[in-house]
Structure formats: C-alpha cells, structure tokens
Amino acid sequence: MNRHNTILGRVVCIVLLCFALCSFGAEPQESTKESNDLEVLKNRIDSGEADVVIPVLENMIQDIKDTSGLYDKALVEPWVLLGDANFALGQHFDALGAYRNASDVARIVEGPLAPEQMRIAYREANSLIQIGAWQDANARHEHAYKIVLNQYESALDPRRIRGLIQLLDWYESTRKFSGALVLYGPLREYVGEHYPPAHPFTLAVRRGYVQALRETRFPTPGTRLAPRFRVQVPGWDPREFRRRPSVYERGTTELQDIAHIVLSNPVSTDVEQASALLELADWHVMFNRPHKGIQYYEEAWELLESTPELLVQAFDKPNIIHMSVTRSWISPQRSLEIQGRIGTVKLALHINDRGKVVGRKTISTSPDRRMEYRVRVIAERAKYRPSFKDGKPVRTRNVPFVYNYTLAR
C-alpha cells in the first residue's frame, strides 16, 4: 500500500463557462487595450523577462491610482502580475506584498468572499511557504476553500469538488491527514454519484481515503515536508465525527469493498485482483491481526502463480509494511548542512510466519554505537508481510535491516 500509488491523480472533469462580451464605445476599447497590454506582460513574465516587466507594472499601477484612486478594480490584475514577476525572481516578500494589495482591492470592491480572491489566495500561500510562514499559508488555502463553499452550495457541484481537491492536495502534501479525512467524505459522495464503482478514479479516491486513515495511525517514515501547524477545515461539523468506527474498522470495510469490486470485475487482471487482496491482507497484519490476513495472502499467491516475477517480488522474502520512526521537520538550510553526513546500523532479523519480528542480531553500527539500541527497538516494532513457500507462510531468518540516520554536529 505505497502512499505514492494511492494518493489521488487529481483528475476531475470541470465545466468551464466562457462568456463573450461584445460592446462599442471608447471606454470598452480602452479596457480591451489594457487587457491586451496585461496579456503581453504576462507572457513576458512566463518567458523569463520578469525583471523588465516590474517597472512597467509599477508605472501602470501608479497611473491607475492617480486617475481612479487606491481601490479601483482595474488595479487587481496589475498587482497580481507584479506579484508573479517578483515571485519569478525569488523576491518572495515583495511578491507577497503585491498579492496582498491585489487581495485587498478585490475584497473591498467585490466583498470578502469574492471569487476573484481565490486565485490570489493560492499565490499568497505559495509566497508564504517560501518565507517559512506555513500557518499563514494554510490559512490562505482554507480561505480559498471557504470561497468555494460560498460560491457553490451543492456538495455535488464539480466546481466545488475542484476547490475541495486543491485543499485536499495541500493537506496531504503537508501530512495533515486529519483534515484530509474530513474532505474525503464529500469527495467519496461525489465519485459515488458520478462514476461507476470499478472506475479508476473511484478506486483511487477510496484508496486515498484508506491511505489517509493509515497515516493517522502509522505515519510513513521519512522527513516532514512542513513544520507543525493547525488546520481548521471550512464547513467541518465536529459532531459528525464524535461516534465513528475505529480506523481499523473503517479501513477494513473500505478495502473489503475495493477487493470485492476488483474481483467481481470481469475485465480486471489477475495482477489487479492480487494487488487488491494484498492491500487488504497487509492492512490486517499492520493492525496485529495476521490470522485474518493470511487467507488473503494465500488467495493472492494463487492469482500470481502465472506471473513468477511478481510472485517472487510479493512473497519470496518478507516485505516491510510499516516501520515506526519519529518524524521531524528539517529546514532547507539545515538539510544542506547535514547532507552527506550519514550513519548506518545494520541488523539481521528473524521473522515468523505471521510477519512478526521474533529475533535479531547486530551486524554493524557506524559511527555512533549509541544508535544501536534505538534501531533495535524500531526493527522489533516493524510490521512485515511474511514470506511464502508453496503458497504457505514460512519463518525467515537473517532478513537484512539497514537504518540510515543523519549525524549531529
């Protein structure tokens, strides 16, 4: 159940409405000319000429202020483009200032939840990330989704789902899976209404939901992408989550449904069916219920017998399902400082026919011998898919376990 295979592809069919506005007179012609000028400037930013565009935009903004005041709607697009130009040059504080000016004008002219602010909010968030203001960046993403909820009342409106997926992407990329689980509710309802059960997008959404459940209990090892910050999902009613089945029960139900759909689909391959069974079996083993998982492993073995290379990959040796490692955020600067300074602990593990580590021995530890105990604890708590021989689980000795860590100064 690799996270990168289960996170959504984010492909949603959104209907875009185009309005053709035709009119006559001096003012519309001037507006059209200004729009054309802005389009030219945008193209120059995209082609790498941001440094040339900045003074032109600054003069344009000043001219509009002088003739129309500080809060003319015509200021929004030049401010946005000025932000884009500064962002392209890596001047993120200047970019953020320009985006905020654009947002202020849009808010005052059109209201606090005007659709115009949505694209600006995403740009603000990107700038805030670059300067390390993750909590504020999260607030802008959530504000954009609040605008979506205000604009589109129906939970099944594709335009609303598009905004939901934007926020879901943000939560998953920053590992805020509690927030992601809230959003999977309406997303699963949407795909249930618009796609058949065996559709790839339906299965991707359901697997993404299971992955989010898993991450709340068994986080994927590695370095956090972002430091800790709080999330507050717009439109979330906490009462809906007070009495819910456990993570294990919800994930089991979902994976059983997925397996049933795939197995009953006449066009699904043996490999696809085996993959669905392995997901379900691994889930049971991860939650210390190997007796429930073994039967699904045995069924998957039978399906993979016709593809020996995949059979070997799945069952020839124990496959690690989860390794519990404390996660910590490393700033980009610190990441460069510690790059290349790695320590290693090597163990040999004994794993029984239920995927449990029942013994181990140390092969080597370098350079800090104090890390050996910590790594031994990590290894003993690891969850494994047991190896199989002739379709039955077997005990395996001397399974390599290598743990790399960064060295402190």
The CATH C-level class name of the largest domain: Mainly Alpha
Strand fraction: 5-15%
CATH topology of the largest domain: Serine Threonine Protein Phosphatase 5, Tetratricopeptide repeat
Q: Which term fits the overall shape?
A: elongated
The SSE order reads: HHHHHHHHHHHHHHEHEEHEEEE
Strand adjacency order, main sheet: 3-2-7
Number of domains: 3
How helical, in percent, are the residues?
55-70%
Task: Based on the coordinates given, report the CATH architecture of the largest domain.
Answer: Alpha Horseshoe
Biggest β-sheet strands, sense, barrel: 3 strands, antiparallel
Number of strands: 7
Weakly predicted, low-confidence segments: 1-30
Class by helix and strand content? mainly alpha
Q: How many angstroms does the end-to-end distance come to?
A: 36 Å
User: Kindly state the mean pLDDT as a whole number?
Assistant: 87
What is the overall number of helices?
A: 16
